[in-house]
Design goal:
Elements: H1 4-7, H2 10-13, H3 23-32, H4 39-55, H5 72-97, H6 104-130, H7 135-146, H8 153-164, H9 180-205, H10 216-262, E1 269-271, E2 274-275, H11 289-294, H12 301-306, H13 330-337, H14 340-358, H15 366-370
Antiparallel strand pairs: 1-2
Helix pairs in contact: 3-5, 3-6, 4-6, 4-13, 5-6, 5-7, 5-10, 6-7, 6-10, 7-10, 8-9, 9-10, 10-13
Protein name: Alkane 1-monooxygenase
InterPro entries: AlkB/XylM, FA_desaturase_dom
Keywords: Cell inner membrane, Cell membrane, Iron, Membrane, Metal-binding, Monooxygenase, Oxidoreductase, Transmembrane, Transmembrane helix
Length: 379
């Protein structure tokens, strides 16, 4: 176990700052266009995946009782990402819309790269911030989500995904043999409505109407409208279109990650509308070193769902008999998910093994696949 004094060192936190190394790649893509447009996705998807093959896995666990005051340098990179992302998005809109050396397709290519960063880094940081009790950090998370037009993710993630992961009530738990493209459309259609229902139910328990000012959807709408107006002011209609495109790419990146994290895993139905509690084996785990730096330990997803309030530098990893392990880090698993036959070939045998290991008493999985069991009640 890594002791708290060692965790507190800046040198221990520094590897989690690797996201900053991807920013120059966007600058180069905007400056040169052409082949340079490949740099951001190559950096985000292949650079750290390649480093995983060299550095291997990190099975060491930090002391989970490390005081929060020891984690300043880990928190600081998530705090400063909002101004960085704002400059990245709107600065690139200003530069690209005023340029004469880029074709229309090249401009889209540049903003594909921007979306890769805002999705694989910005939303990951927003996710970390939204799980904290500090209002400042939650506001940073809300503002980051507004820059990718996905503000309702906060509600859907905290009020639906975490309580009901592994059940049909949770849309982002990918079903066994469900291809990513079908999953992506299903989540896009159902996510916003699911978040609205969750907030409506919470307001009703407080005796408030759905459109009461306490509903965070008012805040979500205002922040997203502000983000859109700023894009229009900086880059005109072209800038607005490029902003929307990077937001779509970021959302696609997020949902690729969601797809990978829980594919095929279900919680046991106990009867009377109840499911077993969430345990580490209800999420796919990955402790590959370099991609864990890139995704600030989001790959230690088994512990994140078991202890959602635990900050990312303290997340634990587990042996395979406690939590199912992905064969590769998130970037390469996400690319495999884009090819459903390849994905099923890699992952379906692992899901079947997981079923035998953790639920040998269940001999018929068809009711889980069909969704025969009732949805848990919204709380």
């Amino acid at each position: 176990m890594i002791p708290a004094p060692m965790i507190a060192r800046f040198s221990s936190a520094l590897p989690f700052w690797v996201s900053l190394l991807l920013l120059p790649l966007v600058i180069l893509s905007a400056r040169y266009g052409g082949w340079a447009m490949l740099l951001p996705p190559l950096g985000a998807w292949w650079l750290y995946a390649g480093l995983d093959t060299v550095l291997g896995r990190n099975t060491e666990n930090p002391d989970p009782e490390t005081p929060d005051s020891y984690l300043f340098w880990y928190k600081f990179i998530t705090w400063i990402w909002l101004p960085i992302q704002v400059v990245l998005i709107y600065g690139t809109i200003w530069y690209v819309t005023g340029s004469t050396h880029l074709t229309g397709w090249e401009k889209l290519g540049v903003f594909f790269g921007v979306g890769v960063l805002t999705g694989s880094i910005g939303i990951v940081y927003a996710h970390e911030l939204l799980h904290q009790s500090d209002r400042f950090e939650r506001w940073l998370g809300d503002l980051l989500l507004a820059t990718v037009l996905y503000s309702h993710f906060r509600t859907e993630h905290l009020l639906v995904h975490h309580p009901w992961v592994g059940t049909r009530r949770d849309a982002v738990t990918a079903r066994y043999s469900e291809g990513f493209h079908r999953y992506f459309l299903r989540v896009l259609v159902s996510g916003l409505a699911s978040a609205w229902r969750a907030e409506k139910a919470m307001l009703a328990r407080r005796g408030l109407a759905p459109f009461d000012g306490a509903n965070p959807f008012w805040r979500y709408a205002a922040l997203q409208m502000g983000a859109l107006i700023l894009a229009l002011l900086v880059g005109g209609w072209e800038g607005l279109g490029l902003f929307a495109f990077q937001a779509f790419v970021a959302i696609w990146q997020l949902e690729l990650t969601n797809y990978v994290e829980h594919y095929g895993l279900t919680r046991k139905y106990l009867g009377n509308g109840k499911y077993e509690p969430v345990r580490p084996h209800h999420s796919w785990n990955a402790d590959h070193k370099a991609t864990s730096w890139q995704f600030i330990n989001l790959q230690r997803h088994s512990d994140h769902h078991y202890k959602p309030a635990r900050r990312y530098p303290l997340l634990q990893t587990y042996p395979e008999d406690k939590a199912p392990q992905l064969p590769l880090g998130y970037p390469l698993m996400a690319l495999a998910a884009m090819v459903p036959p390849l994905w099923r070939r890699v992952m379906n045998p692992r899901v079947r093994k997981w079923r035998k290991d953790h639920y040998p008493e269940i001999t018929d999985w068809e009711p889980y696949k069909r969704g025969d069991f009732p949805d848990p009640a919204i709380r």
